[in-house]
């Protein structure tokens, strides 16, 4: 499961060396609230788009993709994924028959991970395509030999059909050697221009009620690299502190929260300060009653309650989790 964890937290872009473009498709059938089909695109481990069969549209997830492509791009991706939605419904029934599952009930999954890599220092390229059914290896592409292979008997009819289809093999060769690499190079350029932009964090001190921890919430910053620390009377204070993960927001920026678990009488008689360091600036917020936004009393705020902020952060992560869930299921049963 280590790979899955890295997929979830790898949100920083690197613009020198090897770059990767990866698409993950995840189809679920039977007894689940997941969308029937979910797809995400990832560039250098950052999710840049999202599609599922409930919303039936492709959604940009980063500022750099919003700024650099037009409506025809999103229409193309949407049309391709709608084709997948209709195709997988038929394919899943064929596979259930092959695996003698046609009469059984339960949840069945089909996962595809494909994409390409490019090293901007050496010019070396590579590509990959892996299919999994119900959490097990099903089909993979040997690009060097330009043929599909399967480790299970049930996959043999499919690979024979694909390997005998010259038009399909020609498309596969062209896509991975040309189209995928061309898009990857474009994304590198799009991302570079985005990396030059910086947005400073907005910092707030939040408290749900008088007995709750005080949270230092930094939001709306870009890029995602930031440190958030507490100081007590001018000295670094690591005790009684819970630091959250940096998570993406819906608008392509990032947010993070750090909670100080000390009683009010303690922070009222000492000087506690939240220090947020970002490449754009350093922000220091002194913990006083006047500076804390609460859900109670005279300093309450309708516009910035704590609970919706936390829920919003979780929801942003869930979009990523849903997108990579297929790959995680695929890896789990293979001991990764």
TrEMBL record:
Domain Ig-like, residue spans: 201-294
GO cellular component: external side of plasma membrane; extracellular space
GO biological process terms on file: immune response
Domain of life: Eukaryota
Signal peptide: 1-16
InterPro entries, A to Z: Ig-like_dom, Ig-like_dom_sf, Ig-like_fold, Ig/MHC_CS, Ig_C1-set, MHC_class-I_related, MHC_I-like_Ag-recog, MHC_I-like_Ag-recog_sf
Keywords, comma-separated and alphabetical: Glycoprotein, Immunoglobulin domain, Membrane, Signal, Transmembrane, Transmembrane helix
Record field: transmembrane: 306-330
SMART domains attached to this UniProt entry: IGc1 (SM00407)
Family: Belongs to the MHC class I family.
Name of the molecule in the record: MHC class I alpha chain
């Amino acid at each position: 499961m280590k790979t899955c964890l890295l997929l979830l937290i790898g949100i920083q872009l690197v613009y020198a060396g090897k770059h990767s473009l990866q698409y993950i498709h995840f189809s679920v059938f039977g007894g689940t609230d997941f969308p029937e089909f979910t797809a995400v695109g990832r560039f250098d481990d950052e999710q840049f788009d999202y599609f599922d069969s409930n919303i039936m549209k492709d959604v940009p997830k980063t500022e750099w993709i919003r700024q650099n492509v037009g409506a025809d791009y999103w229409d193309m991706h949407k049309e391709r994924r709608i084709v997948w939605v209709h195709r997988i419904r038929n394919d899943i029934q064929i596979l259930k028959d092959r695996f003698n599952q046609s009469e059984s009930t339960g949840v069945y999954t089909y996962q595809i991970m494909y994409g390409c890599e490019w090293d901007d220092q050496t010019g070396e390229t590579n590509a990959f395509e892996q299919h999994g059914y119900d959490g097990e290896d099903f089909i993979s592409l040997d690009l060097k030999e330009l043929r599909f292979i399967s480790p299970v008997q049930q996959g043999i009819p499919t690979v024979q059909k694909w390997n005998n289809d010259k038009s399909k093999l020609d498309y596969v060769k062209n896509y991975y050697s040309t189209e995928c690499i061309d898009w990857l190079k474009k994304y590198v350029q799009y991302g570079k221009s985005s990396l030059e932009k910086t947005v400073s964090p907005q910092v707030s001190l939040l408290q749900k009620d008088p007995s709750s921890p005080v949270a230092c919430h930094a939001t709306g910053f870009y890029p995602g690299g930031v440190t958030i620390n507490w100081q007590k009377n001018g000295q670094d204070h690591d005790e009684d502190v819970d630091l959250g993960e940096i998570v993406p927001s819906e608008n392509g920026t990032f947010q993070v929260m750090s909670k100080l678990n000390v009683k009010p009488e303690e922070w009222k008689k000492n000087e506690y300060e939240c220090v947020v360091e970002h490449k754009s600036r350093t922000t220091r917020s002194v913990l006083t009653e006047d500076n804390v936004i609460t859900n109670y009393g005279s300093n309450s705020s309708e516009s910035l309650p704590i609970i919706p902020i936390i829920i919003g952060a979780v929801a942003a992560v869930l979009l990523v989790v849903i997108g990579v869930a297929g790959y995680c299921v695929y890896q789990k049963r293979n001991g990764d």
